[in-house]
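call fold target=Small GTPase superfamily, ARF/SAR type domain-containing protein
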Amino acid sequence: MYTLFKGLYSLITQREEYNILIIGIDNAGKTTLLEKIKSRYSPKGGLPPEKIVPTIGLNFANIFFKGYKLHFWDLGGQEEIRRLWTTYYKECHGVFFVIDSTDKSRLMEVQNSFESLILHHEADGVPVILIANKQDKGNSMKIVEIKEVFNKIAMVIDARESTVLDVSAITGHNIEEALNWILDRSPSNHFLYRLGLGVYHTGVELMGTEYCFGGHPYKFSGVFETVPRVGPPGVFFRESIFMGYIEKDDDDIVNVIRSIMIEYSGKSYNLLKRNCNHFSEDLVYRLTDNKTPRWINRLAYIGSWFPCLVPDMRSPVESEYAEDERAPLAIVSDSAAVRPLLPSNSTISSFTA
């Protein structure tokens, strides 16, 4: 038994490592992006932009970010080097595909390179974030323009596996967001993933408002309203999950909301037995008679059997807003959250934070 728990402890506490591939055609600013990442997160720092030269071959760097060790591979973008990209697909956990958002003349070339990445069998299932670089320039294309071009290609893969983000490798704008996005979709983006577990924050969206449950030391309700798909600090929206239709009139819906707000006081919050996911499941069931996916709250279930693995006595507010609680606000998927419950001809969606 000691060996079992020692093994579980090692599994839980070991530092996760990820390989992130940085590619894109030449002159997109890939190396400048890597050097900016190093300047922010590496004790050795990075090179200033004026000292950076075009990459011929490979640059690499290691950083520590939010408890993870990230290995970056920056590959050259010259046409003769692009054929080497594919040799790295199988070993990477995420891809930064960098484009020069000021160069419309090469947009078709960029589009073809991006499509070859997306359609390559070795890249199947690898999260890809399209970095629209040089957004600090006055002549850069708007994100909506870029999305119109690249979303048509990205439709061939799961929408959760690709996105477009406006970035500046010079100012560092949205670099942290890019890293968070990749980590949130990596194979081990949450606690105990090897055991099929995760720590998720969820909420339920209803008629344009999201209802969540959090703890506080007072007797009044712990249910609060918020803007849909905007999670608590430190969590990141992942997706909305359809939960069915509500066959109730407006008065019945209001009564359900009022009654559950009374029942779920802030003081009653418990990480293992009465958390935000229990609330989301309860509210969804009262409105639709549907159950939320079991994996959303699996960690709490396991913790109730092995409280030594998942502490039961964390403070309510700390538990609900912990940085590693990456989950949806509705009914969840990866990090999930249960989203708004809508009127009879509407739907329930969920997102992860």
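return ok
Residues 189-197, 305-353 have pLDDT under 50 and may be disordered. Residues 141 and 193 are 39 Å apart (CA to CA).
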